Each structure stands twice: as C-alpha cells, then as structure tokens.
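Operator note (shift B, R.M.): manual run for Dehydrogenase requested after the automated queue skipped it. Running by hand, logging everything below so the morning shift can see what happened. Input copied straight from the record, untouched. If output looks odd, do not overwrite the archive copy; leave it for review.
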Amino acid sequence: MATDRKRPRGPVGPGAAALAAATTEGGWALVTGASSGIGLAYATALATRGVNLLLTSVDAVNLERVTAELRDRHGVRVESLCQDFAAETVLGGLPDLIADRRVEILVNNAGFGTKGLFTATDAATYTDMVRVNLLAPVLLTRALLPPMLARGRGAVVHVASINAIAPIAWSAVYSATKAFLLSYATAVWYENRGSGVAFQTLLPGTSVTPFHTHSGSTRLPPWAMTPEAVAASSLAALGRAVVHVPGAVNRVLRALDAFLPLPLRTKTAVATAVMRRSLGV
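Run finished. Output pasted below as returned.
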C-alpha cells in the first residue's frame, strides 16, 4: 500500500491529472456533506482552483447559502441538491443531477456518528449511519468510477477517520463504518491501480467541525485540525498516497498502530481511552 513517506511531495500523476482536467476542461467535482466542516473546506478549495461543483447536504439552508457564496466569489458553476443519504432510496435524485456532468473528482465526505454505549442508541439510527457512511459512498463510487476508468483519469476520495485503525468502544458502529471504508476503498484501488484514476482514503483525526458537537463530544483536544487544513493536506497528497493521514499527532497514532502490534483487547482499550480522554466522553 502506498504511504505518505514513500512518494514525492505535491500532487503528481493521476491526482494532478484529475485536478487539471476539472480545472481547465470544464469538469466537475462532486462533494457530499458540503454545507459545513471538511466538506465545505473541500468545496471551497476546489472552487478556488476553478473547479465546477456539484454539492450535496442534508442541511438545505446552509447548502443554499454555500452554493450562492461559492458561485459568486469564485465564478465557477455550482449546483446543489439537498439529499438525505439515510433515506431508503439513499441516492435519491442525485443520479439525475450527475447524469450529464463529467465528474472528474468525487469526494465522499458525508457521514455522521454517535458516542455512547452501543445499546443506548436506537436501531433506526444505526440503520441511517450505515446508509450514510457506507452505502452512499459505495453506490456513488460504483456510479462514477466506470466513466473515470473509460477516460483514464479521475479521482475518488473517501473521508474516513483515524478511528478506522482500531475498534473504539462507545463509538462502536461509527468506528466500524470507517474501518469498512478503509478496507473497501483500498481493495478498489488495488483492483484499478495503473488505471490513471487516483484513489485516496483520508484518515483525519479530531477536527474543528460541527460533527463533534452533533455526536456528543464536549471538548476538543489541542491538536484538533481545522477543516481547511485537512482538505488542503488531502488535495496536496492526492495521487501520491492511497491512505493519507493529515496532522503530525494523527500520523504518530497511525505509525504506532502499524509498528507496535498489540492484542486486540489492548488495542481497543488504548484507542477507547484516547478517544474518551481527548473528547471528554
């Protein structure tokens, strides 16, 4: 698997090709969960580069505001769809929106989590979480990857979490969905390596976003990154690392997991302790 320290710095190869095609040839980037946080940071960074945007969010009010602001400020085409991936149809009207658009970059960012005992959350919430965190990115990638492969270029980014590296109690389903993304996305990359399409699974740590307020966190650790820093780090690494971990502290955690193999019980205990201490849960 490609890692950050084995490739040259800066976007090269397929990542640069996808960004260039979207910037200079009228291509589009689809960003899910784009009305705030990391999704908004991706959308803003891409708009700054001159990339046309297709944006989705469950938050209709903020999505409308963001759409107008990015269009007016950066002079790019921006279209949006209020879409709840937790619905039974999952993608809803999104296939119609992307049908005649040449999507060069897909950023699967939408997701949510809960914190607390597994039995304290109702089954319907877990069903929604699986649809949003797992089914939506799988179906979107399945829809948009074949045209990218046919063109010999494109980029698919999955926003997972540093939580993917170990099971975390009091966040059991959320951390498992991110582990699924890491496993699934890496396998799809392996199937299509050399195709000209760039694949990246992003493993951010705690970030200063509304996500943590919604999931029940009471405070953030001092190493929490801004969404803008996370998105910038991701785009800079696009095409040179299949798995990218932004932030020094997060990279240390990833390295410890890779080079200090621990029994599963110990790994779970340590990861859970770090999460609970850092987030005050």
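Quick read of the result: The longest helix spans residues 123-151. Confidence is low (pLDDT under 50) at residues 1-12.
Leaving this for review. - R.M.
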